[in-house]
Amino acid sequence: MPRIAGVNIPENKQIEIALTYIYGIGRSLSKKVLSETKIDPAAKATQLTPAEINQLKDLIEKTYKIEGDLRRERMMNIKRLKDIGSWRGLRHLKGLPVRGQRTSTNNRTVRGNVRKTVGSGRKPAAEPT
Questions:
Q1: Which CATH number is associated with domain 3-64?
Q2: Domain 68-111 in CATH: superfamily?
Q3: pLDDT, tens digit (0-9, with 9 covering 90-100), for 88-129
Q4: In sequence order, what DSSP letters do the residues of 7-62 get, joined into one string?
């Protein structure tokens, strides 16, 4: 398994898809990196030579912010919003949608599966014995 930026790249996938396993690299950035290094996007990760893997490593690690650095930067941005007490920071603190979505319905992903209807959370009544 090739290892780039501390992430094991899957061997049986095309390199264009395999690079997206690295946090911070999507399809478009993957295509851009492969065109800069002149590597065939359809090639499997196992078909790459060690020289090509090193070329990819160098370009990605020196040019782009990925993995731990990117996660740290995102966390610091959210922490800054919380510290200054901005509206977005308070929404992050409360675990609610940050970007203006409606909250009456359709925000299960942020809140978790919290149902607000009366009957759904009730336990069945105990049967008399």
A1: 1.10.8.50
A2: Ribosomal protein S13/S18, C-terminal domain (4.10.910.10)
A3: 999 999 888 899 888 887 777 777 777 766 665 566 777 776
A4: EEPPSSSBHHHHGGGSTT--HHHHHHHHHHHT--TTSBGGG--HHHHHHHHHHHHH
Q: Percent of the chain having pLDDT more than 70?
A: 91
Q: Minimal CA–CA distance to 35: which of 7, 11, 16, 8?
A: 16
Q: Which residues contact 25 (CB under 8 A, 6 or more apart)?
A: 19, 33, 60, 64, 66
Residue 16: other Cβ atoms inside 10 A: 17
| pTM given for the model | 0.71
